[in-house]
Design brief:
The protein is an alpha/beta fold. The chain folds into three domains: 278 residues, Aldolase class I (TIM Barrel), CATH 3.20.20.70; 101 residues, no CATH class; 119 residues, Double Stranded RNA Binding Domain (2-Layer Sandwich). It is 39% helix and 19% strand. It has an eight-stranded parallel barrel, surrounded by six helices. The relative contact order is 0.07.
């Protein structure tokens, strides 16, 4: 392989702040931040095929339904489609009283004017103005020094402030982003923000949001948290404005950076559903909210219908949701591993008995909270073990296997999975159980029985039907199982011993109320059988007969010769 073009030496590490007084590592998140969605702007502009107005309306309704109260709806000064969408929201009265819409604009007077025109008549709105402040863009894109770029921000702030006076009936919030904050010199970012706030004056009652974007994620989340805390310690008027973060996911740690940024002092987070956005995407609102939820914190978002949320997202964006997506993926609550399945089964059983705070192995939250069914938690393939197989039979079919039979049956199911190379669904698991343990030749099928207890002894009269003729086998012993086994051993002249036996009532079934399972040795060879019947004694008798039939020690012809045996 030619590694000539793959040369790490052309990259320099991102600068970090020397901050020995950092406090954020000792903080805890105790409440949800103010969440703001940028799906309809940042997310939409990253789509290969941007959403239509109808799709954006549907997506907007979804964002409202799950509880987002600040929603960036577009860039109306740069896109006629976004302008028309913003106007439609306002003119059709689609914005609920608790929701504030947000629009993005560059710091140019014509674009700012157009943005306010798009918002005319709205009860409340956020006008979000930005300009790049990092040295790469100052030098390579704008060809300006620090003073020149700061002047862009100051002019933008003045134009926003002045344009708002023409719309006195609207409750305005002003938002400023020093774009690529994470790549901007910290002291310069503070200088620019202080200049903007000196114009907007949040200390005099104007609602101001200062948004710090990691437009391109360039370093580790802890370094970003240092940048946020450093900013909070030095910016003027900190107690008078909302501090927002807008992290991207270029390094795969956009959510982590947002979480640590909250610890460092942020109040608000911008993000998108499932992390959609340019390059590797934005901070994922779903993951962030569910991370809080799993720690017992109200995320303020309603995510209980995850399948419905995913459906709208997929249909509007034409993007998939990865099956291993945190919290929402199709497979995240699914265990194929045998040891995991066994632990989940036992954990759910323990919780059903004892209750208390959620604490089930391998399940950080209850899947039912997101509208997921337990059917998806344990699925069977060649990696599965006794725990998973037993769980599926018990969960879906009310059949609780003793441990010894679960171990044996799991091998049968695993063999099936290895042969087919596919997942073994619940219906197939039940069919395999019937094939290996419940199915019995007609001549071994119990037609009826009578049982009589006298003292410590049990008399049993077993009837089998062969060619329309009822054949009888009677026996006496200390119990049903011991009496029948002794009689069968004498009748056929075989060494027959019960090595495992279990019977229990079924929790839910159609008519049948008991299951019995038995493992016997016939001349030293182990075989097993099971039976489901209306009562435990009938199930025990049939299970023994089924096991004996499985051994092949007795032929069908011999069954026809059954007579009374004492």
């Amino acid at each position: 392989m030619n590694h000539t073009a793959f040369d790490h030496r052309k990259y320099a590490p991102a600068p970090v702040i020397a901050k020995p007084d950092r406090r954020w590592p000792n903080q805890r998140i105790t409440r949800a931040p103010l969440f703001a969605s940028v799906d309809l702007r940042d997310g939409n502009q990253a789509l290969e095929r941007p959403m239509s107005v109808e799709q954006k309306l549907r997506f907007f309704d979804l964002l409202v339904a799950i509880g987002l109260t600040e929603i960036e709806v577009g860039f109306p000064s740069a896109s006629q489609a976004d302008f028309d969408f913003t106007r439609r929201l306002i003119e059709e009265g689609r914005i609920p009283p608790q929701v504030t819409i947000q629009v993005l604009t560059q710091a140019r007077p014509d674009l700012i004017t157009r943005s306010f025109e798009a918002l005319a008549g709205v009860p409340r709105a956020i006008v979000h103005v930005y300009n790049s402040t990092n040295p790469v863009q100052r030098e390579q894109v704008f060809g300006m020094d620090r003073a020149g770029v700061r002047a862009i921000a100051e002019n933008g702030a003045r134009w926003v402030r002045d344009a708002a006076t023409a719309y006195p009936d609207t409750e305005w919030s002003f938002q400023y982003s020093p774009e690529s904050y994470s790549a901007t010199e910290p002291d310069y970012a503070v200088e620019v923000v202080d200049a903007v706030n000196a114009i907007w004056r949040p200390d005099r009652g104007q609602r101001v949001i200062i948004n710090l974007p990691a437009t391109v994620e360039i370093t580790t989340p802890n370094a970003f948290a240092d940048q946020v805390e450093w900013f909070c310690d030095r910016v003027a008027m900190r107690d008078h404005f909302v501090l927002s973060l807008h992290t991207h996911n270029d390094r795969g740690t956009g959510v982590a950076a947002a979480e640590l940024g909250l610890l460092a002092g942020a109040d608000r987070l911008e993000g998108t559903l499932f992390g959609n956005g340019e390059r590797t995407g934005n901070m994922d609102l779903i993951t962030m909210a569910m991370n809080l939820y799993s720690q017992g914190i109200d995320p303020t978002l309603e995510l209980s219908d995850m399948e419905g949320i995913e459906k709208v997202y997929r249909e509007c964006t034409a993007l998939p949701v990865h099956p291993r997506h945190p919290w929402a993926g199709e497979l995240v609550y699914t265990a194929f591993s045998g040891s995991h399945q066994d632990a989940i089964r036992k954990g759910l059983s323990h919780r059903a008995r004892h209750g208390g705070k959620w604490n089930v192995p391998y399940l950080p939250i209850d899947p039912l909270d997101l509208g997921r069914r337990y059917e998806a938690v344990v699925r069977i393939n060649s990696q599965s073990g006794k725990g998973g197989v037993a769980h599926v039979l018990e969960r879906d079919h009310g059949i609780r296997l003793p441990r010894w039979l679960a171990v044996e049956f799991a091998r049968q199911v695993q063999t099936e999975a290895e042969v087919t190379g596919a997942e073994v669904n619940s219906r197939t698991v039940r069919a395999l159980f019937e094939r290996f343990y419940l199915e019995v030749p007609a001549e071994w099928r119990l037609a009826g029985y009578r049982m009589n207890r006298q003292g410590g002894q049990v008399d049993i009269d077993v009837q089998l039907e062969q060619s329309g003729v009822v054949q009888r086998l009677t026996a006496r012993g200390d119990g049903v199982v011991s009496a029948l086994v002794a009689a069968l051993a004498r009748r056929y002249g075989v060494a027959l011993e019960v090595v495992e036996f279990d019977e229990h009532a079924l929790e839910h079934s159609t008519g049948a109320r008991a299951l019995a399972a038995v493992a016997i040795t016939v001349n030293g060879a182990r075989v097993a059988g099971a039976a489901i019947a209306e009562d435990s004694a009938g199930a025990a008798v049939q299970a023994i007969l089924t096991a004996l039939a499985t051994s092949g020690a007795c032929s069908a012809g011999e069954v026809a010769e059954l007579r009374r045996v004492q």
